[in-house]
Amino acid sequence: MRDKAAGLMGLVHGSRMSLDGKIVEQTLSQWVDMGGKPRTTEILFAPHVRSCCYVFSAKSPVLQQLGPEWEDALNRLNGVISLSLKVRALTAYYSRGFYDIHDSGICVGCQEKFFLNSRDGGQRNLAAVWLR
Ligand SMILES: [Zn+2]
User: Fold this and answer.
1) What is the pLDDT of residue 131?
2) 101-131: per-residue pLDDT in tens?
């Protein structure tokens, strides 16, 4: 995310657990405190696991952990439930008035060239931004 007018740039890691911990809401509070404004902030969804690959059985314990704020992010079809991290994050951005949102459209589950913890197991990612 960036706000050219305010001279701000940031990264938000929107995993299920961090979204559950309200990382977007907390980041936007700090963003606004530092001068970021909804009208001049651009947000980009980077490659991430999307609902096509974030699938649970109806009996999954993960589903028991999700609060009501996840309801719009869940899709149910024939006993299979998929989760959209994007929908959950969008809800948080929209509720704070941030609407200039773009999307890479890339699912890391569909493309094996990307790391996916549930597929590739037990490792961690590192993200960095280099400014010139
Ligand atoms: Zn996918």
Assistant:
1) 66
2) 999 999 999 998 888 877 888 777 677 776 6
Mean pLDDT value across residues 30-44: 97
Ligand 1 center from residue 36 Cα (angstroms): 32
Q: Measured in angstroms, how far is the CA atom of residue 94 from the centroid of ligand 1? A: 24
> Is 67 within the bounds of a domain?
no
pTM, rounded to two decimals: 0.87
**Cα 106 to middle of ligand 1, angstroms:** 8
> Hey, which residues does 74 pair with through a beta bridge?
83
How many domains does the chain fold into?
1
Q: What are the tokens at 111? A: 């493309």
Structural domain harbouring 21: 2-50+84-118
CB atoms within 10 A of CB 30: 11
Residue 31 lies in a domain: yes
Between the CA of 48 and the centroid of ligand 1 the distance, in Å, is: 9
- Compute the distance from residue 74 Cα to the ligand 1 centre, in Å: 15
